[in-house]
Amino acid sequence: MQELHDAPLAPLTTFRLGGPATRLVTATTDDEVIAVVRQADAGGTPLLLIGGGSNLVVGDKGFDGTALVVATQGVTLDGTRLELAAGEVWTDAVARTVEAGLAGIECLAGIPGSAGATPIQNVGAYGQEVSSTITEVVAYDRTTGETVTLANEECAFSYRHSRFKAHPERYVVLRVRFDLEDAGGLSGPVKYAETARALGVEQGDRVPLAAARETVLGLRAGKGMVLDPADHDTWSAGSFFTNPILTTAEFTAFRTRARQLLGPGTEPPAYPAGEGRTKTSAAWLIDKAGFTKGYGDGPARISTKHTLALTNRGHATTEDLLTLAREVVAGVHRTFGITLTNEPVTVGVTL
Q1: What whole-number distance in Å separates Cα of residue 177 and Cα of residue 73?
Q2: Which of 133, 125, 118 is nearest to 164 (CA)?
Q3: How far apart are CA 238 and CA 308, in angstroms?
Q4: Where does residue 8 rank: exposed (0-12), middle (13-18), buried (19+ CB within 10 A)?
Q5: Pick from 52, 56, 54: which is nearest to 71 by CA?
Q6: What are the b/e assignments for 273-311, b being 16+ CB within 10 Å?
Q7: Pick from 210, 211, 190: nearest CA to 201
Q8: 3-state class percentages of the chain: helix first, strand second, coil last, to nearest 5
């Protein structure tokens, strides 16, 4: 277990932003993770958990407390059942399952971060969510001081949300268990229209697992969503805002407003999101509100490849990033009456 003091946090985040932590500890076993958490809790010390750093916005002043890097390792594959230690690199885990001929997370290729972060916000992309394959999450419960195993239904998964996200100060994810599908080397049914088009198949068709993974990686790379140190479009947290979910009345009002602004034939993106609820596209809202690809003239700008990503062009501060984010939120609300919600976790700052 490594311990540093007044240690920079920016290199541990994909934004490459943020000030130092008073104390930075790297834990490589579950017991070490639990020991650090217990010590912090017993002393009333603020605690920041860090995995891959791909969903963190750390303030310029840093973090006055203990920052814990969860660097645990361990992959167990038994038939279709997969168990990952929280510190395992998610993209590597996806590649392993594809090589093993197992379907269920192949369209989640290229998502940066650690395995332990995936259940927290129910990571999803290109028609798949981890909630559809997670069977159990092993976590340390800071309230009871015990290690607990929560079944899928106990995790309260929903769009980009879970029990763990609802109670961020309570649970520390240690291990995640999945049950995948052996479909004879084929992917799960291709659900996302863009993926189907890129593969040249119909939605619902299955394709070779490797083809599904490579296609998703290509689509993500084209949007700056695959980490590349030389590409400032990837100095981001991926999608900075979640797609808004609206009630029927809210969506009707939004569509009316969009048609008034953009023309009577305008049809905003609409996806079923449960009874009486419709999900629309944050990227569409941002673009139509005037924040196009590459928007901005400062050190923090919208990605040149995707309107949903806010980026550090190499010498930004966290305040630069937040100024841009606030401008986008205000502009979308002013134009369409919808308030965007940030997806990354903010530390020491608020949007």
Answers
A1: 14
A2: 118
A3: 7
A4: middle
A5: 52
A6: beeeebbbbbbbbbbbbebebebbeebbbbbbbbbbbbb
A7: 190
A8: 30, 25, 40
Q: What one-character-per-residue DSSP string does 18-78 give?
A: --EEEEEEEE-SHHHHHHHHHHHHHHT--EEEESSSTTEEE-TT-EEEEEEEE----EEEE
The letter for the amino acid at 343 is E
Q: For residue 186, list its beta bridge partners.
A: 208
**Tally of CA atoms within 13 A in the half-sphere of 163 that contains its CB:** 18
Token pair of 147, please? 């290690």
Distance CA 61, CA 59 (A): 5
Give the chain's residues under pLDDT 70: none
Distance of CA 162 to the CA centre of its chain: 12
pLDDT of amino acid 19: 98
Please give the positions annotated as active site. Answer: 160, 239, 343
**201 burial class (0-12, 13-18, 19+ CB within 10 angstroms)?**
middle
CA pair distance 37, 19, nearest whole angstrom:
22
- Cα dihedral 51/77/129/164 (nearest 10): -50
What does the pLDDT look like over 85-112, one tens digit per residue? 999 999 999 999 999 999 999 999 999 9
Owner of token pair 């002013």: 334
